[in-house]
Fold this sequence. Notes:
The structure holds two protein chains of two kinds.
Chain A: H1 2-18, H2 20-37, H3 46-79, H4 83-87, H5 93-125, H6 132-159, H7 162-189, H8 192-204, H9 214-218, H10 226-252
Helix pairs in contact in A: 1-5, 2-3, 2-5, 3-5, 3-6, 3-7, 5-6, 5-10, 6-7, 6-10, 7-8
Chain B: E1 2-11, E2 22-30, E3 34-38, H1 45-52, E4 60-65, H2 73-76, E5 79-82, H3 94-104, H4 109-122, H5 138-149, E6 156-160, H6 168-183, E7 187-191, H7 195-201, E8 204-209, E9 212-218, H8 219-225, H9 232-240
Amino acid sequence: MRQIWILAQNTIKALIRKKDFYVFFIMLLVLLVSLLSENFFGARNVSRYIKDIGFFCLWLFSFIIAVTFASKQLPEEIDSKTILPLLAKPVTRTHFILGRFLGTVLASSSAYTIFYFLYIVVTSIKGEGIAFSLVIQAYIMGICFLSLVSAISILLTLYLTLSAGITVSFVIYFAIIWFADKLRAIVISRTGIESVLLNIVYYVIPHYEFYDLRVRLAHSWEAFPLWVLSGVIVYTILYTSVVLYISCSKLKKKFL
Amino acid sequence: MKYIEIEKLYVNYESKNSKEALQGLDLNVYKGQIYGFLGPNGAGKTTTIKIILGLIPRYKGKVLIMGASPDNLSVKQKIGFMPEIANYYWYLTPRELLYMYAQIFGISKKNALAKIEKLIDLSDLKDAADNLMRTFSKGMMQKVSFAQALINDPDLLILDEPTSGLDPVSRIKMRDVIKELHREGKTIFFSSHELSEVEMICDEVAIIKDGKLLRAGKLGDLLKKKGGSTTFESYFLSIIGDNYR
Lengths: 256, 245
Ligand SMILES: Nc1ncnc2c1ncn2[C@@H]1O[C@H](COP(=O)(O)OP(=O)(O)OP(=O)(O)O)[C@@H](O)[C@H]1O
Ligand SMILES: [Mg+2]
C-alpha cells in the first residue's frame, strides 16, 4: 500500500513538472471566456450552447490528458530504464501498475475538477445554471470515466507501442460513442448464434457512452435515479479491476 | 553464509534469433565478500544481476539470495542496486529522488533526511542536490545512482559497472567508499571492465563468457595456477580465449 501511494505521488509530481496539462488548461480557459463574451445564435439559446460546447471541450480535454498521460507511464519508464532501480527495491510489478494508475487517475481527475469548476462558474454566470444534483452526478460520472480510460490506456501500451496505444485508445473511444447505441439496436434485431456473438461484443466493450451527460446538462434534464448512478459506479470498478488485473499479469511476464 | 547462490542457471530472453543469455551459470558469493564479476560485452553479467534482483520473470535453475527467492520483498529490503545505465526521473532533484526511495523502504522521515545529507556529501553532489536531474552529466547521474543504492544501508550491494563514466578523481573516491563499505561489513558484488580496479579491491572474482562461468576464486590463487608470473590482464585474455594479441 505504501509503495502504491508513493508511486502515485511521484506520478502527479511528474505531471506538474512536465507541464503537459497547462496547455489544455489555458486553451479551455480561453474558450470558456470567449463563450462568455459571445452571443451566438440570438439570446434565447445562448445558455444551452455554452453548456453544450463547454462541456464537450472539458470532457475532451480531460479525456486527452488521461489517455496521453496514462499511455506514457509504462513505455517511458521501461524505455528509460528507470523501472529497474525501482523494481530492485521492495516494489512489486503490481504495486508499480497500481501506483501509476492511481497517480494518473488523481492527476487527470484534478485537471477535470478544475475544468469542471470553471465550466460551472461560466454556465451559472451566463444563464440559468444547472440543477445541483445533476452537477454532482455529471462530476462523479467524469471521474469514473477517467478511471476506466486510464486503466485501458495502460493496458494497451503493454501490447502496443506508445503511439499505437494512444491512437487505439482514441479510436476505441470515438467508435464507442458513435456506434454503441447502433450496436444495441443491431443486437436486438438478430437471432441465434449471431445474436449471441453480438451480445458478447456488446457486453465486453467499455461503455464510454454511459458516462457522458452532456445532452442531459445542455437540456437541463433531471438527474438520474440513484440506482443508475450506483450501477455505473459498480460497472466502472469491476471493469477497471479486470483491466488492471490483466495489465499486472502481462507486466509480470515481461522481460525488462 | 551464502548471500548469492546460483546453480545451473539458464535464461532465454525469447527475442527471435537470440541464443540463451545464460547457459548453465554457477555462482556463489558469501557474506562479507567483495566480489568482482568479469566478462566480455554480452557475456551475461547484467542478466545475472537482473536475476539476483528478481527482475527476470522466467528462468531455469536454482537462484537463492540470502537464502530466499529473489523476488522476496524482505530480501529486497536489504539490497542496494546501482544499474548499468544511470537514468532517473529527470523531473526530480537528487534530494527528492533519494527521499522517494527512502519512503519506499519505509525509512522514517528523520532518518531519511539525515541519511540523504550523508549520501549527498559522500557522493559529491552538494552543489547539484537541489537541481532537476534533467541537466545532469553522465558522471553526475552515476553519482546519484551510487547514492540511491545506499539509501537503505544495504547488507548486499550490487553494482553494475559502477565507475564507468567517472573522472579519475571521482573514480578513486568511489573506489575508496566501496572499500570502506566493505570494511563496515557489507557484501559487495560488482561487475566491471576495469581489470586494474578489480585487482585493487576484490577478494574474489568470477569470469564469465557466453553465459557460462569460466573461472572463479581468489585472484592470487587463479594466477598461481597459471604459474604466478602472468599479469591479471594476460590471464584474463587467455581465459576468455581472445587471440587479439
Ligand atoms: N532485454 C533483452 N532482450 C533480448 N536480449 C537481451 C536483452 N538483454 C540482454 N540480452 C542479450 O543477452 C546477452 C547477455 O547480455 P548482458 O546485458 O547480460 O551482457 P553484459 O555481460 O552485461 O554485457 P556488457 O559488458 O556489454 O554490459 C547478450 O547476448 C544480449 O544480446
Ligand atoms: Mg552489462
